[in-house]
DNA sequence: CTCCTTCCCTAACAAGTGTTTGGTAGGTTA
DNA sequence: TAACCTACCAAACACTTGTTAGGGAAGGAG
């Protein structure tokens, strides 16, 4: 895996300047000005392959093959394989948090908030199932890299939101008070998001239907209450 | 930083120590006849790295580095990187099914069976947390390869066991009858196994304690029943 | 017509990959 | 002593990887 050797010349041994190949980049830099539709098309395709094979196991030649072009041609649209992954994940997270913020703006009670968050989460899985699957597999390993630091930020914010809602519900009597809330948080979080590993959009269950069933199990349990 | 400290070869209790040099083994073939302890030691180390970085993202040089030796030296113990992964996953699955079979042999009712399976699962996560994490990330992608066909077999057997128990419980009135059982199966399965992504052995919660809390949420829900 | 932009191809590069081959220090056995 | 075995090293091999440089076909604009 060649690092970013480029940016200046091809074969220049640099005795100094060992790190910081970062000129002041203002925004996400596309490689060239290209049509956003083609870009989104290729990105969706790459996300699909990443989700199926795993990011590291996916070669850029495979993506290009799936798109009906050659590997080098991808670099007209994107400046690296990593930037594709970056854009896939960040756009997903942006939309996710937009949805969550809409839920929070409604200012519901703890239980209704949890319900709305679960429904919203399943909708996001429906819309971004490839990105979610990638996130599931790679987030933990990626969040260490500086470029993907926003993954860790999002995780923290995620925990504050869900755990805070659970705590609020436990104190108001909406949720059981005898539970380890951190354990409960992980339970809720995982049960919702791992659904992306088997969920396929266009199946027989709508996201809302799945969310309803999940919420029923999560809130009331699967056993017959005596 | 390579760890040069290794190979405490004291306390060698080898009951049989067969002096059989090379009988044609049709089973898993080790590269050379090597001490099983060192082999297991290296395998545990490789599993740890695989779990942390992902299989494809882990280089064989990295594993060797962690073991304090060079990449080629690993091939004295194993004949390929893939065979390390194979052995990690298959030994885990063997032990898992041994545990499940012991549960089944008790011939409990549906609810008690589910409870025992969950407890057993958390014990396996405790014992093989690296292998479980690898399984979680790579199983779906690997089960296509012929060498790892047993992963798909295990998944099918897994589904028959859990789904069958859920169906039994739904018909006997132990579990709610208004649930989509296939959805319930995935719910139960996922909630148990994704715990491997955050669980660390030696933490403050024992596997049995976590299983108890999980079962409480799974069976009775997190909401206060009215 | 020419100029320019868009989008892709051809052909390579350098670094990294899993793996092999031959060698060897050190202990055990004959 | 010599032969042997274990567990590693040293150095390479063939191949794949992400990435780049230059070129060219198509089409619209002037």
Question: What is the fold's blueprint, element by element?
Answer:
The structure is a homodimer of 226-residue chains.
Chain A: H1 36-53, H2 60-66, H3 74-77, H4 81-105, H5 110-127, H6 129-142, H7 149-172, H8 181-193, H9 207-220
Chain A binds a DNA duplex (30 and 30 nucleotides) through residues 1-6, 10-11, 32-35, 38, 59-61, 69-73, 75-77, 79-82.
Derived from helix and strand composition plus strand pairing, the structural class of chain A reads mainly alpha
> How many individual β-strands of chain A?
0
Mean pLDDT of chain A: 86
Number of helices of chain A: 9
Rg for CA atoms of chain A? 21 Å
Your description of this structure?
2 copies of one chain form a homodimer. Chain A has helices spanning 36-53, 60-66, 74-77, 81-105, 110-127, 129-142, 149-172, 181-193, 207-220. Chain A starts with 35 loop residues before the first helix and ends in a 6-residue tail after the last helix. By secondary structure, the first copy, chain A, is mostly helical. Chain A contains 9 helices and no strands. The A-B interface holds A 52-54, 56-57, 111, 137-138, 140-141, 166, 173-176, 179-180, 183-184, 186-188, 190-191, 194-195, 197-198, 205, 210, 213-214, 216-225 and B 52-54, 56-57, 111, 137-138, 140-141, 166, 173-176, 179-180, 183-184, 186-188, 190-191, 194-195, 197-198, 205, 210, 213-214, 216-225. The structure holds a DNA duplex (30 and 30 nucleotides).
